[in-house]
């Protein structure tokens, strides 16, 4: 049984373990104060939101998402980070997190839910190909600094 719910103040320590795992997977470094700032924003719930997935009463997965305006429709929901502890993979945790974010997007009236992943992330893409559609877009990041 997987229980999906919003993260709360008592989830900070385990959330950071998972968040650090996510950042390590993508080889992205974040200073310690960056985790503190992100956690504050999650608890605030105005810009960034987060669900956690619990299995056997342990937090084993996280999903960070946000809503934003779009030019041509009712707005979008971006699933920015999705991570499941390696020991809990293959048990439907990621799918349950995606479905819960999709529910939140529907509740908000968003016209779409979308996310990105690395091209070579085959395990994740196998799931994504089951639950979503790939439309062939390629993402570019302009260097801002």
TrEMBL record:
Q: Which UniProt keywords apply?
A: Acyltransferase, Transferase
What SUPFAM superfamilies does the record point to?
Answer: Acyl-CoA N-acyltransferases (Nat)
Please give the Gene Ontology molecular function terms for this protein: acyltransferase activity
Q: Which InterPro entries match?
A: Acyl_CoA_acyltransferase, Bact_Acetyltransf, GNAT_dom
- Identify the residues that the record assigns to the N-acetyltransferase domain, covering every copy: 2-145
Question: Which segment of the chain is annotated as a signal peptide?
Answer: none
Q: What is this protein called?
A: GNAT family N-acetyltransferase
Organism from which the protein derives: Streptomyces coeruleoprunus
């Amino acid at each position: 049984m997987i229980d999906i719910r919003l993260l709360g103040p008592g989830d900070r320590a385990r959330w950071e373990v998972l968040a650090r795992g996510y950042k390590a997977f993508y080889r992205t470094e974040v200073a310690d104060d960056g985790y503190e700032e992100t956690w504050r924003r999650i608890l605030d719930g105005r810009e960034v939101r987060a669900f956690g997935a619990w299995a056997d009463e342990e937090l084993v997965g996280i999903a960070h998402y946000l809503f934003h305006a779009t030019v041509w429709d009712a707005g979008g929901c971006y699933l920015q980070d999705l991570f499941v502890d390696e020991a809990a993979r293959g048990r439907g945790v990621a799918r349950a997190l995606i479905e819960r974010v999709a529910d939140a997007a529907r509740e908000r009236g968003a016209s779409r839910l979308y996310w990105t992943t690395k091209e070579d992330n085959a395990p994740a893409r196998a799931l994504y190909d089951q639950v979503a559609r790939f439309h062939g877009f390629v993402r570019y990041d302009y260097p801002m600094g």
